[in-house]
Specification:
This protein is α+β, with helices and mostly antiparallel strands. The chain contains 15 helices and 10 strands. The strands form 3 sheets. Strands 1-2-5-4-3-6 form a 6-stranded mixed beta sheet. The chain is globular, with a radius of gyration of 27 Å. The C terminus is likely disordered.
């Protein structure tokens, strides 16, 4: 392809026209490339005026039938309202669902996400991913860190970190989530920072987000990141390991991905995405979720990115979710009313605890005798 592109003269025009087919290959990679030199156009089935059918069926009945298809095939729940369909277009689409079933997404895609349908081994259901509405970051800090939520006072945050070698291949990713709301708060990804230097970003971002609880994958290059941060940042995930020398359980920093722990991480993440207990705002992250599949490829413990796609943000989100599930216990925040009560008790030197049994006029002397011994 590179040689073919170079044959186009200086004032020539290059046009690619293709049916989106899977999440691998040059066309998919170029479409997903945010820095592509090409302008992208997606033409869905709504562009064709012939894709409509008259029907005497009331709209309410059509919506009721469509709701059942949504549950069964993972279609866009609010397609009628979101895309401003006519009743005739809506009925046409329903007739195609009756015939094509789940393949309607591939044959009559409404969004680019649906168009690049994968091989059927997808871990995350397309309908579940479409519940997550992307939005632009509210700002960028430290040059490349996308921010969707500034740290809120009194809220806890978790960070999942997938570490790469930083030599231009896979990406190192830092994903930040509000542990109390499940919403994505920040994201950083790079393929040009060494693992030990990535610890500087982790330290800065972690401190910024209320001393966030950080989960770092220890496999491969993650060890260098952990060694560089563990002496200056304490709020790190620690796993239980069995020491064969002492025959005792001990703690070790970092999440180790194995053939046992990866299915657990993936299953938990799939449930969180389906139930929206985690809320994703990043376009890049949702793209990677879409191409994350079951695979027999060596070294991937049963799951990974399809074709030439990446899965670094998926793993980082999974690590963050494990952080939420393993968040260290913390003293509950004191409400304003509780604070005033505590200050009143301290000021008047009242006992901190009272007998739970209510005092009534008829048994007041008896109860007072109990309290006085």
């Amino acid at each position: 392809m590179a040689a073919l592109l170079e044959t186009v003269p200086k004032n020539g025009r290059i046009t690619f026209e293709s049916t989106a087919n899977g999440t691998a290959g040059y066309f998919h990679d170029e479409w997903m490339n945010d820095k592509s030199e090409f302008k992208k156009h997606f033409y869905n089935w709504l562009w064709d005026p012939e894709y409509s059918l008259d029907t005497p069926t009331p709209l309410d009945e059509l919506k009721s039938e469509y709701a059942e298809h949504v549950m069964r095939y993972g279609l866009i729940p609010d397609i009628y309202e979101r895309f401003d369909l006519t009743k005739e277009q809506f009925y046409f689409y329903i007739t195609k669902i009756r015939r094509q079933k789940q393949l309607v997404i591939q044959e009559y895609p409404t969004t680019a996400l649906e168009a690049f349908i994968s091989s059927g081994r997808n871990v995350f259901h397309l309908g579940d991913l479409q519940k997550h509405i992307t939005k632009e970051p509210i700002e960028r800090k430290w040059t490349d860190v996308a921010i969707w939520e500034l740290p809120l006072k009194g809220f806890r945050y978790v960070i999942g970190c997938d570490v790469a070698e930083g030599l231009g291949g896979d990406y190192s990713v830092i994903e930040v989530f509000n542990a109390d709301t499940g919403e994505q708060a920040a994201e950083f990804y790079t393929n040009s920072i060494a693992p030990d230097r990535l610890s500087d970003y982790l330290y800065t971002i972690g401190k910024f987000f209320n001393n966030a609880f950080i989960v770092i994958e220890v496999n491969n290059h993650g060890r260098a990141t952990i060694d560089a941060i563990k002496k200056r940042y304490y709020n790190l995930y620690r796993r239980q390991v069995f020491d064969k020398v002492t025959n005792q359980n001990t703690e070790a920093i970092g999440w180790r991905t194995t053939s046992v722990t990866k299915p657990l991480l993936v299953d938990n993440l799939e449930q969180a995405i389906r139930e929206q207990s985690l809320r994703i705002f990043s376009k890049r992250t949702l793209r990677e979720f879409k191409s994350f599949v079951q695979t027999d490829e060596s070294g991937k413990q049963g799951f990974g990115a399809e074709g030439s796609a990446h899965d670094d943000t998926v793993i980082a989100c999974g690590l963050a979710l494990q952080g939420i599930k393993n968040l260290p216990s913390q003293k509950a925040l004191e409400s304003l009313a509780q604070k005033k009560l505590r200050e009143y008790i301290e000021k008047h030197k009242l006992p901190k605890y009272f007998n739970d049994e209510p005092i009534h006029s008829r048994n007041r002397p008896k109860q007072l005798m109990r309290r006085n011994g």
